[in-house]
Design goal:
alpha/beta; Rossmann fold
Protein backbone atom coordinates (compact mmCIF):
# COMPACT_ATOMS: atom_id res chain seq x y z
CA UNK A 1 0.00 0.00 0.00
CA UNK A 2 1.33 3.45 -0.85
CA UNK A 3 0.94 6.54 1.23
CA UNK A 4 -0.90 9.45 -0.38
CA UNK A 5 1.58 12.31 -0.77
CA UNK A 6 1.09 16.03 -1.19
CA UNK A 7 3.19 17.00 -4.20
CA UNK A 8 3.89 20.63 -5.10
CA UNK A 9 4.27 21.37 -8.82
CA UNK A 10 5.85 24.63 -9.97
CA UNK A 11 7.29 25.72 -13.32
CA UNK A 12 8.76 28.93 -14.64
CA UNK A 13 7.10 30.26 -17.80
CA UNK A 14 9.62 28.76 -20.24
CA UNK A 15 9.34 25.38 -18.51
CA UNK A 16 5.55 25.01 -18.25
CA UNK A 17 5.28 22.96 -21.45
CA UNK A 18 7.97 20.57 -20.17
CA UNK A 19 6.11 20.17 -16.89
CA UNK A 20 2.81 19.56 -18.74
CA UNK A 21 4.49 16.80 -20.78
CA UNK A 22 5.97 15.31 -17.60
CA UNK A 23 2.57 15.41 -15.86
CA UNK A 24 0.94 13.75 -18.87
CA UNK A 25 3.61 11.02 -18.91
CA UNK A 26 3.22 10.42 -15.13
CA UNK A 27 -0.53 10.98 -14.95
CA UNK A 28 -1.39 7.57 -13.46
CA UNK A 29 1.15 7.94 -10.65
CA UNK A 30 0.11 11.53 -9.90
CA UNK A 31 -3.62 10.79 -9.74
CA UNK A 32 -3.20 8.90 -6.47
CA UNK A 33 -1.66 11.92 -4.76
CA UNK A 34 -2.74 15.43 -3.78
CA UNK A 35 -1.27 18.15 -6.02
CA UNK A 36 -0.53 21.74 -5.03
CA UNK A 37 0.37 24.16 -7.82
CA UNK A 38 1.20 27.81 -8.17
CA UNK A 39 -0.81 30.06 -10.52
CA UNK A 40 -0.70 29.36 -14.22
CA UNK A 41 1.17 26.12 -13.62
CA UNK A 42 -1.90 24.84 -11.78
CA UNK A 43 -4.19 25.68 -14.67
CA UNK A 44 -1.88 23.90 -17.13
CA UNK A 45 -1.55 20.84 -14.86
CA UNK A 46 -5.34 20.70 -14.40
CA UNK A 47 -5.92 20.96 -18.17
CA UNK A 48 -3.36 18.21 -18.80
CA UNK A 49 -4.92 15.89 -16.22
CA UNK A 50 -8.44 16.70 -17.42
CA UNK A 51 -7.62 15.84 -21.03
CA UNK A 52 -6.07 12.54 -19.92
CA UNK A 53 -8.91 11.95 -17.45
CA UNK A 54 -11.58 12.42 -20.13
CA UNK A 55 -9.83 10.14 -22.57
CA UNK A 56 -9.00 7.26 -20.22
CA UNK A 57 -11.55 6.78 -17.47
CA UNK A 58 -14.65 8.53 -16.29
CA UNK A 59 -14.02 7.06 -12.82
CA UNK A 60 -10.62 8.70 -12.37
CA UNK A 61 -10.38 11.72 -10.10
CA UNK A 62 -7.63 14.10 -9.18
CA UNK A 63 -7.07 16.38 -6.22
CA UNK A 64 -5.45 19.68 -7.17
CA UNK A 65 -5.17 22.94 -5.23
CA UNK A 66 -4.11 26.10 -7.00
CA UNK A 67 -2.26 28.85 -5.17
CA UNK A 68 -1.51 32.37 -6.36
CA UNK A 69 0.92 32.95 -9.19
CA UNK A 70 4.55 32.69 -8.04
CA UNK A 71 5.36 36.40 -8.46
CA UNK A 72 2.08 37.32 -6.72
CA UNK A 73 2.84 35.32 -3.59
CA UNK A 74 2.33 31.70 -4.67
CA UNK A 75 5.97 30.82 -3.94
CA UNK A 76 5.56 32.22 -0.44
CA UNK A 77 2.27 30.38 0.07
CA UNK A 78 4.02 27.18 -0.92
CA UNK A 79 6.96 27.98 1.38
CA UNK A 80 4.52 28.40 4.26
CA UNK A 81 2.99 25.00 3.49
CA UNK A 82 6.48 23.45 3.53
CA UNK A 83 7.26 25.09 6.89
CA UNK A 84 3.95 23.78 8.28
CA UNK A 85 4.75 20.22 7.17
CA UNK A 86 2.01 20.14 4.52
CA UNK A 87 4.20 19.29 1.50
CA UNK A 88 5.87 15.91 0.95
CA UNK A 89 7.63 16.58 -2.36
CA UNK A 90 8.49 19.56 -4.57
CA UNK A 91 8.74 19.29 -8.35
CA UNK A 92 10.00 22.66 -9.62
CA UNK A 93 10.85 22.95 -13.30
CA UNK A 94 13.18 25.88 -12.89
CA UNK A 95 14.40 27.99 -15.84
CA UNK A 96 18.15 28.53 -15.36
CA UNK A 97 18.40 30.75 -18.46
CA UNK A 98 15.97 33.53 -17.52
CA UNK A 99 16.09 35.98 -14.65
CA UNK A 100 12.83 35.96 -12.72
CA UNK A 101 11.30 39.05 -11.11
CA UNK A 102 10.73 36.96 -7.99
CA UNK A 103 14.14 35.24 -7.79
CA UNK A 104 14.37 35.99 -4.06
CA UNK A 105 11.07 34.17 -3.50
CA UNK A 106 12.30 31.20 -5.54
CA UNK A 107 15.51 31.09 -3.53
CA UNK A 108 13.51 31.24 -0.28
CA UNK A 109 11.25 28.41 -1.48
CA UNK A 110 14.21 26.18 -2.34
CA UNK A 111 15.88 27.08 0.95
CA UNK A 112 12.78 25.99 2.91
CA UNK A 113 12.55 22.74 0.93
CA UNK A 114 16.17 22.06 1.87
CA UNK A 115 15.72 23.14 5.49
CA UNK A 116 12.73 20.83 5.97
CA UNK A 117 14.34 17.99 3.99
CA UNK A 118 11.64 17.87 1.31
CA UNK A 119 12.56 15.71 -1.70
CA UNK A 120 13.00 18.29 -4.48
CA UNK A 121 13.40 17.99 -8.22
CA UNK A 122 14.46 21.02 -10.25
CA UNK A 123 14.36 19.50 -13.73
CA UNK A 124 12.78 16.67 -15.68
CA UNK A 125 15.50 14.11 -14.96
CA UNK A 126 15.44 14.63 -11.21
CA UNK A 127 11.61 14.57 -11.30
CA UNK A 128 11.77 11.23 -13.12
CA UNK A 129 14.08 9.85 -10.44
CA UNK A 130 11.82 11.03 -7.61
CA UNK A 131 8.56 9.73 -9.04
CA UNK A 132 10.06 6.37 -9.97
CA UNK A 133 11.79 5.86 -6.62
CA UNK A 134 10.71 2.77 -4.67
CA UNK A 135 10.39 5.16 -1.71
CA UNK A 136 7.67 7.17 -3.52
CA UNK A 137 4.67 6.94 -1.22
CA UNK A 138 6.24 4.19 0.86
CA UNK A 139 4.57 3.75 4.22
CA UNK A 140 7.97 2.93 5.75
CA UNK A 141 9.82 6.07 4.65
CA UNK A 142 9.90 9.09 6.93
CA UNK A 143 12.34 11.90 6.11
CA UNK A 144 14.85 12.74 8.82
CA UNK A 145 14.31 16.25 10.12
CA UNK A 146 17.17 18.21 11.61
CA UNK A 147 16.77 19.49 15.14
CA UNK A 148 17.30 23.24 15.08
CA UNK A 149 16.48 23.82 18.75
CA UNK A 150 20.11 24.60 19.69
CA UNK A 151 20.27 27.13 16.84
CA UNK A 152 17.06 28.77 18.05
CA UNK A 153 18.31 28.86 21.65
CA UNK A 154 21.57 30.55 20.53
CA UNK A 155 19.60 33.17 18.66
CA UNK A 156 17.47 33.95 21.72
CA UNK A 157 20.52 34.60 23.95
Amino acid sequence: MTKRLTIALVAHDNMKRDLAEWVDWNCKKLLSHRLICTGTTGRIVAETLMSRHNSESANSRFDITMLKSGPLGGDQQLGSMIANGDIDMLIFFWDPMSAQPHDVDVKALLRLATLYNIPTAINRSSADFLISSPLMGSEEYTPVLNDYSSYIERQLK
